Structure formats: C-alpha cells, structure tokens
Amino acid sequence: MYILVPMFIGLLMVFVENAKKTAHLPRAPFGADAEVGPQEMRRWAEIDELERQREG
Questions:
Q1: Buried b / exposed e across 24-51, counting CB within 10 Å, b at 16+?
Q2: How many distinct structural domains can be found in the chain?
Q3: In this predicted model, what pLDDT tens digit does every residue of 24-38 receive, in sequence order?
Q4: Higher pLDDT among residues 25 and 3, named by residue
C-alpha cells in the first residue's frame, strides 16, 4: 500500500509536466482544427518571415 502513494504522485507529476510541455500544441486530432484559406496561408508566411529575420 505504501508503495502505491509515491507511484501515484510520480505518475501525476509526469502527466503535469507533459501537459506543460505540450500546452502549445493543438488538441484536436489529425489537424481537425486547422484553418485553411488564403488568410491562414498569409499568416503562416508572415510567421515564417519573422522567424527568418530573427535567425539571420
């Protein structure tokens, strides 16, 4: 019985850390929440350009 409590706490900590690390990812499976169209493409192009400017 006493071994189950630390195991449960450790497992809970793993889940919490994983949730923190993946908070920026979409939760809908297989890109179901992905937006499409010219406005979305323009937004991604702007993000790519800003990343290139920051790197170089």
A1: eeeeeeeeeeeeeeeeeeeeeeeeeeee
A2: 1
A3: 776 766 666 566 778
A4: 3
Amino acid, single-letter form, for residue 37:
G
The residue segments making up the domain with residue 24 are 3-55
Q: Please name the residue that has the structure tokens 């920051």.
A: 54
Predicted pLDDT of residue 30:
67
CB 34 within 8 A of CB 41: no
| Single-letter residue type at 29 | P
Give yes or no for residue 3 having a pLDDT over 80.
yes
Encode 8-53 in three state secondary structure.
HHHHHHHHHHHHHHCCCCCCCHHHCCCCCCHHHHHHHHHHHHHHHH
